[in-house]
Design a protein that fits this description.
The chain has one domain: 3-Layer(aba) Sandwich (Glutaredoxin). Helices cover 31% and strands 24% of the residues. It contains 5 helices and 10 strands; from the N terminus they run αββββαβαβαββββα. Strands 1-10-9-4-5-6-2-3 form an 8-stranded mixed β-sheet, sandwiched between helices. The chain has a two-stranded antiparallel sheet with strand order 7-8. α2 crosses α5. The radius of gyration is 15 Å and the shape is globular. The termini are far apart.
């Protein structure tokens, strides 16, 4: 995906993204407190990050009408979900927040979740008031803007939040190492033991 120079500069300078090069014996870095939010789920109920305290949470930003990178990210997350086994749901949750809340109503996100066979016992798809959604994205380092054609150009960050609500690491793009992602999720589960 091509980004205008201004967007690329903002992505590089303004996003709190932090890659990591941590051996499996080291703890993941702590970036700081994860920005809280309360948005509306695909089932029309309010969900906040606080509601997920005690679980490891992966927060991603997508939009349902995306035809390139968002479906790849969602599919990758679905594959990792399958590889997590029984800890997914009770100990690990996924949150996908739309960057296109004007079009992505709860009903649209419910269909999107069904298209990817998302296990909604541990995975919520969130939308809400556009100003609130955009503020949540900004606080996570996601920059989104509508294109002339109606699509949304956005930075693609997936953030890991530990059981205590701390932002630990962010993955840039959709091509990150899925085994590392799975391993990082499990290491955050193990930290609490």
């Amino acid at each position: 995906m091509r980004w205008p120079a201004q967007i690329l500069l903002l992505m590089l300078l303004g996003a709190p993204a932090q890659a990591h090069d941590t051996s499996h014996d080291e703890r993941l870095p702590t970036i700081g407190a994860a920005p809280d939010f309360t948005l509306t789920s695909q089932d029309g109920v309010p969900v906040s990050l606080r509601d997920l305290r005690g679980k490891v949470v992966a927060v991603a930003f997508i939009f349902a009408s995306c035809t390139d990178i968002c479906p790849m990210l969602t599919d990758n997350m679905a594959r990792v979900k399958d590889a997590l086994g029984p800890v997914f749901g009770p100990q690990i949750s996924f949150v996908s927040i739309t960057v296109d809340p004007e079009r992505d109503t709860p009903e649209v996100l419910k269909q999107y979740a069904q298209n990817f066979a998302a296990d909604v016992k541990g995975w919520v798809f969130l939308s809400g008031d556009p100003a609130v959604v955009h503020d949540v994205g900004r606080r996570y380092g996601v920059i989104a803007r509508k294109t002339v054609g109606g699509d949304v150009d956005h930075t693609l960050l997936t953030s890991l939040v530990d059981r205590s609500g701390n932002l630990r690491v962010q993955y840039i793009g959709a091509g990150f190492d899925l085994e590392e992602f799975r391993s990082d999720l499990l290491s955050l589960v193990d930290e609490a033991r």
